[in-house]
Amino acid sequence: MGTATSSMAAKFAFFPPNPPSYNITVDEASGKMRFSDVNYQRDNVDVLKLSTKRGNEIVAMYVKNPSASLTVLYSHGNAADIGQMYHIFTELSVHLNVNLMGYDYSGYGQSSGKPSEQDTYADIEAAYKCLEEMYGIKQQDTILYGQSVGSGPALELAIRLPHLRAVILHSPILSGLRVMYPVKRTLWFDIYKNIDKIPLVDCPVLVIHGTEDEVVNFSHGKQLWELCKEKYEPLWLKGGNHCDLELYPEYLRHLRKFISAIEKLQRPHDALDLIPKDQTEQASNNATEQSKEKSRPSIDYREKGRPSFGHREKSRLSTDSRDKARASIDKREKSRKSIDRSFKARNSTDHSERARNSFDRLGDMVRSVGLCNVDCLKQTAAEV
């Protein structure tokens, strides 16, 4: 029974697009690798092939943003590869003002091998090693982003990086088996045991989940957030399903707010009151009500200073002090001004119209890709 269930869990976890959405060519003039099936390719994107410790060669892409101080390592969801994610990655790099590396798991896209839990751990390790050795990115300046099944490799790496800046979990899973069965304890043959790993993450964690997720129940994101050691105010998107959260304007707004807060941390463990105690309790209560009644939580988005993490001494960071900190850190201020100039240069139209158009462009990309990150899970569970 255990062996059969383990095989089923492994089977459900991986749905690489077939055929892959892209091929790789080499530009004769520059000698750089490119995706042959991607329109409007960017000059600031490097296409790479990386060797993993399990003997596979995976494909990655690195989006360079000259004004960025932080780098996002993005682990995508199921039924997608980085050819499909190309334009979403490049847009996120611009709107969040970050460098961004995305990679394909073994057996996905043009990556060699077959996907497995252990291979995805080796895959993200190879991608992170590339960031360190090729681009000089430090873990203090790295944010791990795990979407759906990608929350598994993201959290596995997070617990091994003591100075990591932050983690973002997008429609995450408690574990592979828990997506299909409401088990109460972790079984040895389960995969991606995120429920056991999240309490070991020492950096701030943002959780994003749709309240109407029909693939990975909203309770997964809620419980992971409750188990976080250093919580950032979560984003519970009312009516959001598993594959459409990028369509909500709140998605980009909340990510920008999170990145801005994380940039203010001078060191990974500097104190930053990411969410007050009363707000934490309110968000948890609202999430519980949502899960039962499917109503939108009333989340207070104010950032108040209050020590709330562990037993370490924390410094207070109110709205006024955040302004002072921003003014006192010249490097951050120059970076912010550079971002403003970059956005103005990209579009000279009215600011509100420009923002609306940017959300529309990202939404159009999500619609055109038709991403579903753990497609067929409910069907698989029903057939067993």
TrEMBL record:
Residues 290-356 have a biased composition (Basic and acidic residues). Residues 274-356 are annotated as: Disordered. It holds the Pfam family Hydrolase_4. Residues 70-176 form the Serine aminopeptidase S33 domain. Gene3D superfamilies: alpha/beta hydrolase (3.40.50.1820). InterPro entries: AB_hydrolase_fold, Hydrolase_4. This is Serine aminopeptidase S33 domain-containing protein. The lineage of its organism: Eukaryota, Viridiplantae, Streptophyta, Embryophyta, Tracheophyta.
